[in-house]
Amino acid sequence: MMLMDLIKKRYSVRNYKNEPVPDDFLNQILEAGRLAPTGANTQPQRIIVVREQNGIEKIKKAANIFEAPLVLIVCADNNVVWKRPLDGKKISDIDVSIVTDHMMLAATELGLGTVWICYFKTDVIKSEFNLPENIEPINILAVGYASEVSELKRRTSRKPIEETVFYEQYGH
């Protein structure tokens, strides 16, 4: 599948079939994340794979995962993340977002649905999964086969490019 077709196909799935994601699909998704670029190639991503019911119940204390059978908690190791020298900004959110996007697109190519979740209780995730202080949960990627309900609710509207892209100067 061509990249632009893949991008157009992907949407946020909020209703999943009760069907597990095959191990080889999971491995391909994780490999896509591993290959993602990161600042200074520090590779600060730390991904917690959750498929067992016990782990799913832990995540449900912190976030709505829409009954997805596979959940990836995408974290950053703040001890290794690159910092911009000019102002000291840690780019952990950027790095982990690139990793998540690569995994999300890989899942789409495999015929799986995803939803990127940022609305969650970070303190609950840290506690439930015994994360050390330097490991920061940044986002959650729910993965699985989309139900027919999700297919019907698919949203594809986007603003015209003129509202989001500017040449040379903002607003012109």
Describe the 3D structure.
- The protein is an alpha+beta fold and 172 residues long.
- The protein has one domain: NADH Oxidase (3-Layer(aba) Sandwich).
- It is 33% helix and 17% strand.
- The chain contains 6 helices and 4 strands.
- The protein has helices at residues 3-9, 23-34, 53-60, 92-109, 122-128, 148-152; strands spanning 45-50, 70-77, 113-117, 135-144.
- The protein has a 4-stranded antiparallel β-sheet with strand order 1-2-4-3, with helices on both faces.
- α2 runs antiparallel to α4 (92-109).
- The protein is globular, with a radius of gyration of 17 Å.
- The protein starts with a helix and ends in a 20-residue tail after the last helix.
- The mean pLDDT is 94.
Helix and strand arrangement:
Layout: H1 3-9, H2 23-34, E1 45-50, H3 53-60, E2 70-77, H4 92-109, E3 113-117, H5 122-128, E4 135-144, H6 148-152
Antiparallel strand pairs: 1-2, 2-4, 3-4
Helix pairs in contact: 2-4
Average pLDDT number:
94
Instruction: Output the helix-strand order.
Output: HHEHEHEHEH
Say which CATH homologous superfamily is assigned. Answer: NADH Oxidase
Largest sheet: 4 strands, antiparallel
User: What is the strand arrangement across the widest sheet?
Assistant: 1-2-4-3
